[in-house]
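#struct-pred
JK: can someone run the complex with adenosine-5-diphosphoribose? inputs below
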Amino acid sequence: MDTRITLVLGDITRQHADALVNAANSSLLGGGGVDGAIHRRGGPEILAACRALRASHYGKGLPAGRAVATTAGRLDARWVIHTVGPVHSAEEDRSALLASCYRTSLAVAAELEARTVAFPAISTGIFRWPLDDAARLAVRTVREQATPPVEEVRFVLFDEDAYGAFTRALAAG
Ligand code: APR
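RT: done, structure tokens with the ligand placed:
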């Protein structure tokens, strides 16, 4: 059974899903954009869990391309999967790192036996990755990597530009 890929225009912190993916930074201690919204609406439990991860497995922070799960606190989900996107660079091709965010987040979701996973458009905000390229890479990686028990991958896009980019990426087949 193929994993369904769906698109939603909206705020990821208002989604109901087993796992919500956070576009975190390597400190795991919060930030702006998705990160800020998830901690704001999710509450202090999430930050406490992130701090515990820093104190145990991730003393130097979470490297770009990796993913780790915590409680979802007050969000309508069971877990938040924090992943750190690469900052876009015109000089260096970091596509493999961005693909790794989707791949490792899906692997964590499968381990948790999450059936529905909601992603934001990782790295396309503060990290300045061009939307069309990020959308193509995200859709391709999810098509290649998503496996049961993940049944639905939902891209939650915050504005029309992002929604259009993901619509084009899905249609490109
Ligand atoms: N729901 C869904 N998408 C959102 C939301 C939201 N509530 N808020 C922002 N976005 C969109 C942005 O419009 C962008 O398309 O998510 C995408 C990713 O943007 P950022 O959140 O800025 O994430 P990113 O570009 O990966 O940069 C990560 O920003 O917030 C800090 O701590 C974070 O240092 C890290 C960096």
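RT: quick notes.
The pocket of adenosine-5-diphosphoribose is lined by residues 11-13, 23-25, 31-37, 85, 120-127, 156, 158-159, 162 (CB under 6 Å).
The first helix runs from residue 33 to 42.
JK: thanks, will look after standup
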